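Consider the following input, taken from an annotated entry for cyclic-guanylate-specific phosphodiesterase (Pseudoteredinibacter isoporae).
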Amino acid sequence: MSKQLAAVDLMRRFYQLVVSKPHRELVLWLLKSWSELPSVARVVLLTCESGQHWVRGTAINDSVTVLNTDLLHFRKISPELVQQCHSSASARLCKADDPVVQDKILRDECQSIACIPIGEESDPIGLIYLELSLSKKEAKKLLGDCQQLEVFCGLVLQHLTITWRHHQQLEKAKVAEQALWASEVYLRSILDHSPVFISVVDLDGNVILSSDHHLNDELSEAANTRYNGHHVYSLFPDTIAQALWQGRPESEDEVNADWEFSFESSEGKSQYYWINRFPLLDQQGKLFASCAICTDITERKESEIAMQEQQKRLNHLAFHDELTGLPNRTLFHERLLHSLARARRNHSQVAIMLLDVDRFKYVNDSFGHDAGDALLKIIAERLVSCVRQVDTVARLGGDEFVLVIEDIHSHEDVTLVTEKILAIGATPCELRGYDITSTLSIGVSVYPEDGDDSETLLKHADVAMYRAKAEGKNTYRLFNHSMNDKAVESLLIENDLRKAIKYDKLRLVYQPKIDLHDGRIIGVEALVRWDLDNGEVMSPGEFIPMAEETGLIVPLGKWVLDEACRQQRLWLDRGFKVGSVAVNLSPRQFLQIEFPDFIQSVLDKHQLEPSCLELEITESSAMENAQQSVQMLKRLHSMGVALAMDDFGTGYSSLAYLKRFPIDTLKIDRSFIRDIYHDSNDAAIAKSIIDLGHNMGLKVVAEGIESSDQKQWLKKQGCDYAQGFFFSKPISANEVEESFCHIRRKLELVASNDIGHGI
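Applying the prediction step yields:
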């Protein structure tokens, strides 16, 4: 009866405790109840959940702490003792020096350790871990007196465990609910904001879910409606529905598929998508739907197409002339190699025709580069019309074209083509409202008789073309080997002249100009000489035309101007006042826009006054581009440089232009002086030039004076100055400096006594 009453009292006390205290206080109560037992130094409360031990709290004397820590992270307790107690479901008791608890004791007064299972006998729900200041025997007796506390502790701990598990389940359910809600939010956010179009379609073709992106009037026929539940063919246009539905996965074994899809929008613009489709499997691994991710690649595709077009254009430009559209030098060489290879196989002939537009520079200078470009395009079209499709017409650059004519049987075939080209080339074409006739010079070489490789054939065609130019232009010449000898000689001279200019192997000589009235030296004319390595002197008449043709005349002219001014500075520094130094200008040099700047730089370099320099330009050069010549002469005149028109009377001067030229001197060409006593026409021309010059306020110089009679006649006609072998041959700078005084005295003596001796 007493046991029953005790049990009832225990239940009553348990009920009052559980319903009146929160969980934390229950834990504190349990710890305090055990810590208040006599000789208990430390209490640890543990629970057992799913094979894992959790430390719920500790008590040391009056200090009680609630915890929630995994036993593995709680260092000051013996996990081996806890595990033995839990496994055996019986209390374990050991001395403080037992190895199983060594280094795990916190209290120095501890003599024994006890671990008591709480709850069911077979599967404890918790453990009480005690450090006791009692011997093992005394501790065993103490534990025997605590059975009621163990039972009560078991009831409380069971209640707490059930409550904790319930809270855990609620927390898990809440977490799961939140995770489900979050996953739905994440999925909807991804679908709503994804930059791609995503669509999931079940096995019947119904849309399970889809993103809004790109679902506009172009992609969807159900805009502004709910998409889910629609069949793909009711939601999308046929072309798009077919892309999403056709070729769908038919089984679980099918893998991802990728392809490009395009369609034309209602605005007629091409839209491009990259589709990635993959199967969706349920928990049993069965196919239940397919997902398609469609990425709009329109911009990328348009960029790729634009780049392809650009690359195609670049490839075309790499092998074609941008102005005319004809094959360029690179493509020409490739086609020529193929043509020669075919000719070798077929034992046929190939003609290479090199063409140059006559006086093309005149068109450029007169009408502008735009007109020159228009002329080149017209010529290109005409050349193409003269040959067959199997032949090649190419532009090598500038005004130079080349034709490759295949399957030639004889020179008559070549003649027919060249005459056709010359005829159509000479046809006037309209440029800027003017009918312009621009003829062609053609050089021809034939495979295999003129060479068996492209380089040789081109070189020989080039030689023949220059022969055609030299023999009057507007014609053609077939290559022969006698031309080659002259071409090689000309090339060697050109190379030697380049070196002579570069390494200062040229020299200047100076011919004095004499005042016919008092015999004074009024200046010198600088003349260039080329001393060859073999000791011979090459005549300017031989190398100046070649320099003009190759463009070497520009660096040659600069060298002459610089050297003449350098020498003038030396003479002035040493007290020799020889008057102005005259330098002849080439047409190419004279018409350079920067030429006045160069003249100024040379004068500044040698610290000369402009009056120390005289520039001579031929009549024909000045009239070749009269309007430009007027502007250039005005610029030079404004600088203070003296200007002379050389070889006057040999060209085709317009008096209207002549009066606009700001020149100071006219020079009568030597061809009118030579027979002045025997040819009345020459005498009349010479007198007319003298009168014309004086009437225009110009000084007149006669060139090529070789006799006293010529000098006397010119003096009588009022000619101002003269130069020639009668007075002095061209002499070196050293001779001028060393003999200046002697020469002047001698020339003055000759002038006064009318006795001529060459110097």
